[in-house]
Design goal:
The protein is built from seven helices and ten strands. It is of the alpha+beta class. The chain has a single domain, classed as Alpha-Beta Barrel (mRNA Triphosphatase Cet1, Chain A). Strands 1-6-5-4-3-7-8-10 form an eight-stranded antiparallel β-barrel. The relative contact order is 0.22. The C terminus is likely disordered.
């Protein structure tokens, strides 16, 4: 089976649900009638692989404030790595969201010293045209919003890819952890990582796994059947927003002046 890689420019719907851990297996069995496990889950011993995301924001937390106050539109900027985060490739991403519709632009960078891109605005040689264009856009946004590293998140993901649709994915994310960071790094410090997925702290106690259904133009019928069969109720969950709120120790990040310290 060939390794499927997400395109550099992606537009899709993302439906999010908080579920209890005991629903992961029955939903997985249902999904497996329409999907195969993605390569990275397939080769992982426990079927979950590790994703690290370095999120950026301005000194006044402009992106976080904008995200929490916007009625529909929001965006974030991050640098993503997989596994231990010590080897390429690295992905520079800007993600825009209008309600459940997402537009993501990413640049794949395979150089070890990726920090030079941020420190000196250097574009590595040998990038394909799509990555070069998206990386240039990322650097423009970095300057426009004066962003720097604020938080590093890590989670474990099990993922499925549809074999009956042009594009559809199902992902389960668990073990959501984070730590504050002020350096260009996508390698978490295990000693600093803290959970922000405590079952009692979520809106619905006991539901600490994030299930995402992702598709392009319309929701496949089998996804609708899945939603109905398991009584799923769509909600909003942001790894960036929730980890930042936990880190800052505040229930409402939109409170006037609370982020200006």
């Amino acid at each position: 089976m060939s390794i499927q890689v997400s395109p550099l420019n992606l537009e899709r719907y993302e439906l999010k649900y908080l579920i209890s851990p005991d629903l992961v297996e029955p939903i997985s069995r249902f999904v497996e009638a329409y999907c195969f496990m993605d390569h990275f889950s397939e080769v992982a011993e426990d079927k979950y692989y590790t994703i690290n995301s370095l999120y950026l924001d301005s000194p006044s937390y402009y992106i976080l404030r904008f995200k929490e106050r916007a009625n529909a539109f929001s965006f974030n900027m991050r640098i993503r790595s997989y596994g231990a985060g010590t080897t390429p490739p690295y992905f520079f991403e800007v993600k825009y969201k209008v309600r459940e519709f997402v537009k993501k632009k990413r640049a794949k960078v395979s150089v070890a010293r990726w920090q030079d891109i941020l420190n000196f605005d250097l574009i590595p040689e040998g990038l394909d045209e799509g990555s070069r264009s998206n990386l240039e856009d990322f650097l423009r946004q970095k300057i426009t919003y004066n962003v720097a590293p604020v938080i590093l998140t890590q989670y474990r993901r099990k993922a499925y890819i549809s074999h009956v649709d042009d594009y559809a994915r199902v992902t389960f994310d668990r073990d959501l952890r984070f730590h504050e960071v002020d350096a260009w790094t996508v390698t978490p410090n295990e000693k600093l990582l803290s959970h922000y997925d405590h079952p009692d702290s979520f809106e619905e106690p006991g539901k600490c796994v994030v299930l995402e259904l992702k598709c392009e133009k319309k929701i496949p019928l089998w996804m609708i059947d899945l939603i109905r069969r398991f009584g799923l109720v769509s909600g909003s969950f942001s790894k960036f927003g929730n980890s930042m709120a936990t880190h800052l120790g505040i229930p409402d990040v939109t409170s006037p002046g609370i982020l200006y310290r």
